[in-house]
């Protein structure tokens, strides 16, 4: 038993150079053999409970177990856990992880093992999704030799997936849309006046959605309006300046229908119904036949419009 001394500490090292060999017996031996083959088993007690890891005696009564082995899991449920923000040299993982008691499906007891919940910086707090009751599965080592280390660790079951989706299509506008975009390319917002209800439809569609009649009379509208309703979005959008951002229906002054657009230049939690806004145009040299000429609408220094005046457009 070598030891070394220092000014303020004594370091004792106990070592068995040839290793410590012991007989595991038929119960634990069966458990370890099954681990080597990539399976989890428990043993049934006289009372019908399934113990994992197996024990030669019922911990409740002290009686011998029945010798009936039951395959369990491999999936299981976390019954409790403890977070390790700074792994030590001898820990099974070199990044933050959790020690967890995992009860395999079909078992009545739990086994202690490492739980890998992803890559985190040293010192990180436990992730919010780490909780008692979460479903996990073992990550088996490629080469196994009949020890608890044959399970490298447990991992959460897959409950979410991100499927990248992209759709490309070409849209050819009709005469009304082409004329509308032509106006946008010149810094104008054009609408059509309905000959029946006399409401101005913008963007122009070539017909009135209320009366179903063709529309041809052009009306140039100002680029100011009123927010009638809106939504705060927390998913990134290429056109939006930041997250969260606001998409809103804006009733342009003189229009009879609202137009969907972005609202910026104000914190998202300050956008409100009735707020007066004005179009923020891109630089003239960037204009093209596209609604992208208007980046978004920004607040105007004007009093809000009373709700009663816009309630029919919300």
Automatic annotation (TrEMBL):
Pfam families: OB_ChsH2_C (PF01796). Residues 70-141, 218-282 form the ChsH2 C-terminal OB-fold domain. GO terms for molecular function: DNA binding. It comes from the Bacteria. Keywords: DNA-binding. The keyword DNA-binding applies. This is DNA-binding protein.
